[in-house]
Amino acid sequence: MRPTLKKTRAIALVPLLAGTLALTACQQDPYGPGMNKQTGGALVGAGLGGLVGSQFGAGGGKAAATIGGVLLGGLLGSEVGKSMDRADRAYLDQSTNRALETGYANSRNEWRNPDTGNYGYTVPQRAYQSPDGRYCREYTQTVFIGGRKQDANGTACRNPDGSWQVVS
């Protein structure tokens, strides 16, 4: 049975559509509206998986290979994107803990993820004692994700076990 021209075009459009979605994901702000690294990774992976899958099989087998490639690529890409988010968060958390524990008031405690190029710093303020007896510090965080600056403020208090807990 010979595939129709309409079916052949539909099969050819799957990798093209997946590739378009992947390129769109690359242009989005990773923490902007509706897009993060995990989602972007899933879209890029799906696009690449669809392109690879479309190279195998013939007829209905080609369509199945393309769909399988999209699914597998999306799953793998999602996991890569999620781990990148965790790595950035780990660098930020280490910087914040260092700033709160040993940082001088109004001094920068910088971090940089060499894999993603994302970076930032935490600036602690003077420590003070809260009414419940814990030592607390206000701080600011400045983060550059995908070249875009994002600022946040917070307050953390030291627990009896030595860990810091964000309270606001």
Walkthrough of the structure:
The chain has 168 residues and is an alpha+beta fold. It is 49% helix and 24% strand. It has three helices and five strands, in the order H-H-H-E-E-E-E-E. The protein has a five-stranded antiparallel beta sheet with strand order 1-2-3-4-5, covered by helices on one side. The longest helix is centred in the middle third of the chain and has 43 residues, at 60-102.
What percent of residues are in strands?
15-25%
Count of DSSP-assigned helices: 3
Q: Any idea how many domains?
A: 2
For the record, give the distance between the C-alpha atoms at the N and C termini, rounded to a whole number.
67 Å
Low-pLDDT windows of residues: 5-34
Question: How would you name the oligomeric state of the polypeptide chains in this document?
Answer: single chain
Report strand order across the widest sheet.
1-2-3-4-5
What's the main sheet like?
5 strands, antiparallel
Helicity range:
40-55%
Q: Tally of extended strands?
A: 5
Mean pLDDT: 74
Any idea what the shape is?
Answer: elongated
Output the radius of gyration: 23 Å
- Please write the string of helix (H) and strand (E) elements: HHHEEEEE
Structural class: alpha+beta
